[in-house]
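hey so u asked for the seq, here:
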Amino acid sequence: MKLRGILIFTAMLLFAVTSDAQTPSSTPSAANSPEQAHVISTVDSFLRNLFSWGPAYQLKVGPLKEATIPGFYEVAIEVKFQEQTQGGVVYASKDGNFIIRGELYKASDDPFAAARALLTSEGSPSKGLANAKVTLVEFSDFECPHCRELHESLKSIETKYPQVRIVFKNLPIEHIHPWAMTAALAGRCAFQSSPDAFWKIEAQIFDQQDLISPENAYDKMAEFAASAGIPSDGFRTCLADPAAKAAVDADIVLAQKLNISSTPTVFINGREAVGGEPTALEQLIDYELRPKP
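ran it, structure tokens below
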């Protein structure tokens, strides 16, 4: 599910994280030259006007660093609204006359190599051929209705594309989904019991999503685990084990590194598909399976 409020500017920023850290408003540092201070002030004013960021939005502009575009700075941006913080990058000409939004690529580089390097299947639930030509990595929240829709879509994709390996990563968004972390821990403990057990409990959670509540989540997870053949004592011990929480947290940190701000988010060989819309996924899979020139 998409984060609200601050995401009014998602299309502009290049990454997003949630944070409780305080974000000061933009104030040029004494270490900046007059030219740099002018750029910071100009970027601050421009972005506030562009996105209607009033006093409730705490905006930090900078530091500046040399961009690969001659005559431009790469300008770090961080904005906080209520309890959510997002950051990104814009490019500003050194005279402050031009601002470029968006990502900067070197044409000879593979734009998806960095994401692929991070998206390993090691230590995560996965199914499909180990040497599959296409790897689909999903970041999912068990309480997210759109993630349940993706779960249904992946059933047909798995049948249509046996060449695809599917990898599951957790991204419970706890501030809007109160039992999502409990479910993520249950999935992790099921995986530690056996890889097959994970997919059984994953299906049960999504299939019965509407029947789960914060009050019954723990008991429902134990019920699903029992039906998946997981010993009750070991499962309950695992749910309380800090190692299980650490594994889920590692997925969350990975999501932050990949600038993921909503669930579900899917990667096809490193290509991002926010929302996991079936037609878009099939388009990316078909592209990756095409004969290479």
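The longest strand covers residues 72-81. The CA atoms of residues 27 and 60 lie 8 Å apart.
lmk if thats what u needed
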